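[09:14] KT: can someone run the structure on this one? pasting the chain below
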Amino acid sequence: MIIAYNRTWRWVITTLSLGIVVLILWNTNVFFKNFKAEERAKMTIWANAYQELLASDVNENRNLDIVLSIMTSNKTTPMILADIDGTLSSNNLPDDYAENQTKLQKLIPKFRNENQPIEVLIDGKVVQTIYYGNAPILTKLQYYPLALLLIVLLFLALVFFFNRSAQIAQQNKLWTGMAKETAHQIGTPLSALMGWVELLKAREDNTLPLVEMTQDIDRLQTITERFSQIGAKPKLSRLNVVQITRETAAYHQKRQSALITLDFNSDHDELMVLLNPQLYGWTIENLIKNGIDAMKGKGTIHIEMRKQQNTVEILVQDQGAGIPKNKFRKIFEAGYTSKARGWGLGLSLAKRIIEDYHGGQIKVLKSELGVGTTFSIKLSLV
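[09:31] RB: done, structure tokens below
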């Protein structure tokens, strides 16, 4: 109920914000058009005064004081005056334009695009054409909506990233708490089991069940260490990744049905990388379990390791249903799962373990629907 209430408020605030932005942009556009119309009227008056000035030689009775006052009042609108013989002069333009006919000629199309030229008539004949551009304040006003829109977009992006970061931080805190609580809960019965195993060993009971029990207890101890390390920077040691991967595959092979085969192959017996064995083994375990689920408990999972210059690549290939290409990245997001049951944390944790903790790379190398999927892990050699 609270979540739905918060979502409603977020939509209301977002809608109001967009409405305000649209209103500001609309008012700015209206103001721009009105200002441009006033600029046209001002230039028309200036052109009429200029026409009176040109005709003053013919009619000596004209009031030149008013004409000159109007002529000198416009100090902002850039303009080019073109005589009928092609000679160009300018007003309110930089000094380097004043005597440069080429620059003025190139500027005419720009002015013509901004405003309709005004013709100066004497005795019904065109003696000059006035090309004028937008005043500086009008130019600034023209780009104001774009600047405002950019600011709004940056603000929305900032809000989005802030909320996203807050959500991620909250998820991380939740995962860390769950992981440490899980480690704590497992630790209590695990200590008791370890005591019973030690008691059986003291009786010199070396039967196969005891050996397997010991391996499973070691496995529980490893799981406890995995969960306890989430949320903290793990310790990395220089270890043989081939051996750890082989042991992980062998452990799971013993505990799968006869319908599942784990095929392991490596072109080297020893490849040294900086590893946290518990967390790395967890990643391989997650990929194996995902493959088994994808194959519905029947098929072969191939694990291949190969050296590539300064890196080692670990390939985990299943014969499952496959993954659509548009889901290659999404499957690593926390909470995403295609299973009826599950938290969708396995691949997300695998990505964090490999990329954040080990500085490596994990991705879907290839996948084909109905054929299978190959995951690729790359780690740097040391």
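[09:33] KT: thanks! Residues 136 and 348 are 55 Å apart (CA to CA).
[09:34] RB: yep, looked fine to me
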